[in-house]
Amino acid sequence: MSFSVFLNSVNGSGSTSSSVYQFNWDNIKQDQDGYMGKYKLYFSFWSVGTGLTTSASSVPIVRINLGTTQNSYSASTSNGTANNRILGYLHPDQIGANHNILANYYDNCPVVINGLPSNNQITVEILNASGTAFTDIDAVEYLMTLYFERYDE
């Protein structure tokens, strides 16, 4: 079973760099065999508009909270393994004087999630590499597609 969830920043609450969406996961049908196990999560992203001042030196990342365990971790200088909820990075795209940021589904590795989420909120954050809000995007809108693909280990 696979399915997609489409997010438009104008439909979220909060700022564009930190948007909260409502989504009823109960509407996603189980497989005929009742499968609710692991999924690979891919995403695509495109900023809409010309308000960005970003350049190739500014590469934002996408962090998402779906309300389920995501197998995405960070390494650091300490001996730990922190779950970071990061989906991947966005890259700048310039057409003439206009700047956008985007990611295609093949730009980042998929993140494995352990079952469908249990809450009805999706929180999407666009962050600088330092982990602070990428406020440059607050002047524009974005479109994002989350693609869930059944994953059998």
3D structure, described in words:
The chain is mostly beta strands. It is built from no helices and 14 strands. Strands 1, 4, 6, 10, 11, 12 and 14 form a seven-stranded antiparallel beta sheet that branches. A five-stranded antiparallel beta sheet has the order 2-3-13-5-9, with no helix packed on it. A hairpin with a 2-residue loop joins strand 10 (91-95) and strand 11 (98-103). The protein starts with a strand and ends with a strand.
Cα distance spanning the termini: 15 Å
* Share in helix: under 10%
Number of helices: 0
Average pLDDT number: 80
Return residue spans where pLDDT drops below 50 for at least 5 consecutive residues.
Answer: none
Approximate shape: globular
Give the amount of beta strand, in percent: over 45%
Query: What is the string of helix and strand elements?
Result: EEEEEEEEEEEEEE
Radius of gyration: 16 Å
User: How many strands, which pairing sense, and closed or not: the largest β-sheet?
Assistant: 7 strands, antiparallel
Please summarize what this structure is:
This protein is 0% helix and 48% strand.
In terms of topology, how is this protein built?
Elements: E1 2-8, E2 13-15, E3 18-22, E4 38-48, E5 61-65, E6 70-71, E7 73-74, E8 82-83, E9 86-89, E10 91-95, E11 98-103, E12 111-114, E13 121-127, E14 141-150
Antiparallel strand pairs: 1-14, 2-3, 3-13, 4-11, 4-12, 4-14, 5-9, 5-13, 6-12, 7-8, 10-11
